[in-house]
């Protein structure tokens, strides 16, 4: 059961917006991503990609990810490989169900519940997942109700393009100066900066802290997020 009140008194009058990345920030999906990418590459006729390389592209759209991992492919072959990988992920989710071994990180649910209690704070998601993948995550963890806006890679250019964040501002009416992007990759930080958001990097995700140089703040625990937000909005 979540806390009865926020741990911080934000003392705000204007609406604020907190946008979360999903993979590597709210949920630890690396085992499923490794499985899907490994099987997908094999079915497409390419050698397996090592773990570090796979984690390095988490957050990008499939097309952008394949372009990084297989940079010599032409556009048509890139799309063929993407189609095979997507179908592999769909098949795995159908076989394994909504709960595909991608747990919420410690403190994630409490943080969402806590911020949800602050009337002036709106929350959303901007993810490299396609909408179908995000729906699976929502169903597995019963968290969709926390978010007023959900942006996915199949409806926007890949991160770090700011299109997803621009749409969150349109959906909520919040000014970019009052918005924060929370994520675990340099793509999240660069996207946030490009959209005029403040940025919070998390140290528990898939990019090392050394790649989060564009972050305004880096936190090591969800318990630290309230203070980081309060400082940004003070």
Strand content: 5-15%
* CATH C-level of the largest domain: Alpha Beta
Q: Supply the CATH architecture of the largest domain.
A: 3-Layer(aba) Sandwich
What name goes with the CATH superfamily of the largest domain? HAD superfamily/HAD-like
Low-confidence stretches: 1-7
Reading the helices and strands in chain order gives: EHHHHHEHEHEHEEH
In short:
It contains nine helices and six strands. The chain is of the alpha/beta class and 234 residues long.
Relevant terms:
DNA polymerase, domain 1; alpha/beta; disordered N terminus; 6 strands; six-stranded parallel beta sheet; Rossmann fold; 234 residues; 2 domains
Describe this entry's structure for a reader:
By secondary structure, the chain is an alpha/beta fold. It folds into 2 domains: 143 residues, HAD superfamily/HAD-like (Rossmann fold, 3-Layer(aba) Sandwich), CATH 3.40.50.1000; 67 residues, DNA polymerase, domain 1 (Orthogonal Bundle), CATH 1.10.150. 42% of the residues lie in helices and 12% in strands. The chain has 9 helices and 6 strands, in the order E-H-H-H-H-H-E-H-E-H-E-H-E-E-H. Strands 3-2-1-4-5-6 form a 6-stranded parallel sheet, with helices on both faces. Helix 6 links the parallel strand 2 and strand 3. The N terminus is likely disordered.
């Amino acid at each position: 059961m979540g806390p009865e009140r926020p741990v911080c008194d934000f003392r705000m009058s204007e609406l604020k917006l907190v946008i979360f990345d999903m993979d590597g920030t709210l949920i630890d999906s690396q085992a499923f991503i490794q499985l899907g990418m490994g099987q997908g590459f094999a079915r497409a006729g390419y050698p397996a990609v090592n773990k570090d390389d796979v984690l390095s592209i988490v957050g990008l759209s499939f097309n952008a990810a394949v372009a990084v991992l297989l940079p010599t492919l032409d556009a048509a072959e890139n799309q063929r490989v993407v189609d095979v990988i997507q179908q592999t992920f769909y098949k795995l989710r159908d076989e394994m169900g909504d709960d595909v071994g991608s747990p919420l990180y410690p403190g994630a649910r409490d943080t969402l519940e806590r911020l949800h209690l602050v009337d002036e704070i709106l929350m959303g998601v901007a993810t490299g997942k396609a909408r179908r993948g995000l729906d699976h995550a929502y169903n597995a963890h019963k968290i969709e109700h926390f978010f007023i806006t959900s942006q996915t890679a199949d409806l926007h250019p890949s991160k770090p393009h700011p299109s997803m964040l621009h749409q969150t501002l349109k959906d909520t009416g919040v000014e970019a100066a009052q918005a924060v992007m929370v994520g675990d990759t340099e793509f999240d930080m660069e996207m946030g900066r490009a959209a005029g958001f403040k940025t919070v990097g998390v140290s528990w995700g898939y990019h090392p802290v050394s790649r989060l140089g564009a972050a305004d703040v880096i936190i090591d625990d969800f318990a630290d997020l309230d203070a980081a937000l309060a400082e940004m909005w003070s």
